[in-house]
Amino acid sequence: MRIGNNPNKEISQEQSFFIHQIIVPVYIPNEEGYFLDGLKILKICLDSLFNTIHDRTFITIVNNGSCSNVVEYLNDLFEQKKIKELIHTDNIGKINAVFKGLSGNNIELVTVTDADVMFLSDWQTETIKVFSTIPKAGVVGIVPQFNMFKRYCGNVIFDNFFNKDLKFLPVKNQQAMIHFYDSIGWDRNYNQDYLKFALGLNYGDVKCFVGSGHFVATYKKDVFEELLSFIGGKKAAGIGEDYIDNKPLKKGYWRLTTYDNYAFHMGNIYEDWMQKIPNKIPAVNYSNLNFIKRKNVSGISYFVRNKLFTKLIAVNWVSRSFMKWKKLPKQMVKKY
């Protein structure tokens, strides 16, 4: 039986105090084999996160079917109020776990990160700087990688094709870039020129690279306005990541990465260098946020920038001409 009316029905929802949500899907089903060091690395990941974020950050952990030790650890963090939201699910895959973390929240920025990332000091400050300086920034990564401009960046290049500030820039932190490819098991027989230059953009007082990787990136919330209820098929990646990658393009948003490196990928094996967790940092200045929500671009605009133009610029002679024009050193153009 119900008597009377629920008083909360008449109360409007207040604007969230938080301006930055971080979603961490966690899948550690056991502590054997591939997952032997999984819990230890997760603890390093989250400790580095706690030490490098400002007080208006909302951390969501989605436990995606992990073992009891992981569940106990996460429950303890929630009880200590180190994380704001903890969701326990069966293994529904990374992308569906991200969707669960997104639902029910309305926070301006959303970072989606794997559970094996070590965050470095100033990553949040530098991410916010890119978003607040570049109105079209929709995705901002914090780990520069090879040839990022070749995936989901047709609109950035199209919009800045005649902009002299779109050009190949020297890689600021070559050792960090080497570290990333070591961490994913690559031999060092890749093109060494990739360590020297990458396509970048000077925008006001902000310098950044074009493109972004997947394992950690921050998105404007309105990228996810229309969420699919469930992504079937492969649980790890597949259609889910393609869906997320295409969403910013629908609104004409650019995909970018900070000029310097602000995170390390740890992988699944613990190493001694991981002991150097960043110390607690002072509060981040987030007073200069300048977010402008964008409507979907027209179908023609989307097709021209992200399909037709992308195919054109991928043609071998066009690509070489473009790289030469955008100041990649001539001796590197042929093999880049």
TrEMBL record:
Residues 23-158 form the Glycosyltransferase 2-like domain. It comes from the Bacteria. Signal peptide: none annotated. InterPro entries: Glyco_trans_2-like (IPR001173), Nucleotide-diphossugar_trans (IPR029044). This is Glycosyltransferase family 2 protein. It comes from Flavobacterium psychroterrae. The lineage of its organism: Bacteria, Pseudomonadati, Bacteroidota, Flavobacteriia, Flavobacteriales.
